[in-house]
Design goal:
Radius of gyration: 19 Å
Distance between the termini: 26 Å
Structural class: alpha/beta
Shape: globular
Number of helices: 6
Helix content: 25-40%
């Protein structure tokens, strides 16, 4: 599990808090290491998702997003606030699960009832399809330990977690995007499964 550490700005927040409370604030010496400063310089990119159209799969979508948040540091998926436009729309339909990435971290996910009716795990489907939005391709055939193996792992596979290579690829996709060297986004391509 990844835990994001607030490393910069704590002394400033405390200073403002104490001054607002009428007390005297004294800045504490910095205990931030150079590596922590570097880590915080590449903060997680936040992308919002709208699961209001995901019908009976809303809790599976929320869990799939939480799994990505636990698994990687470079990106964070949050439910969209009322009145805002989401980066990712999640819809339920009667077809096969699929994703339509537009740019890295943006697109539409369909949680298809056809796969659910065949016995595939809804949380695995959600996590898998969100993986496409984060730049991952299908890896077929593949074992259950690979999230992106999709349906080839069979209906008995309920693993919704990305493996080590998949996590590293997402981290790299977003590090590359932040550095301006691109990222693995396949715009306009429907990825089925």
């Amino acid at each position: 599990m990844h835990v994001r550490k607030p490393t910069i700005g704590l002394a400033a927040v405390l200073t403002v808090t104490f001054s607002l409370m009428g007390g005297q604030a004294v800045a504490a010496p910095s205990t931030t290491t150079p590596s922590e400063v570097a880590d915080s310089a590449v903060a997680a990119r936040v992308f919002t998702y709208d699961a209001s159209g995901s019908a009976e799969f809303k809790s599976a979508v929320d869990r799939g997003a939480a799994i990505w948040n636990e698994s990687v540091d470079a990106v964070e998926l949050r439910p969209v606030a009322t009145g805002q436009r989401a980066n990712i729309r999640v819809l339920a339909d009667n077809g096969w699960p699929r994703a339509l990435p537009t740019t890295l971290g943006n697109g539409t996910v369909y949680i298809g009832r056809q796969a659910v009716d065949q016995g595939y795990n809804t949380i695995r489907i959600s996590s898998h399809e969100l993986g496409h939005i984060l730049g991952l391709p299908d890896r077929k055939p593949g074992p259950c330990s690979s999230l992106m193996s999709g349906s080839t792992a069979g209906t008995a596979c309920t693993n919704p977690y990305p493996d080590t290579e998949e996590k590293a690829e997402v981290e790299d996709n977003f590090s590359s995007a932040l550095a301006g060297t691109g990222g693995a986004a396949r715009s306009g391509v429907v990825i089925v499964d």
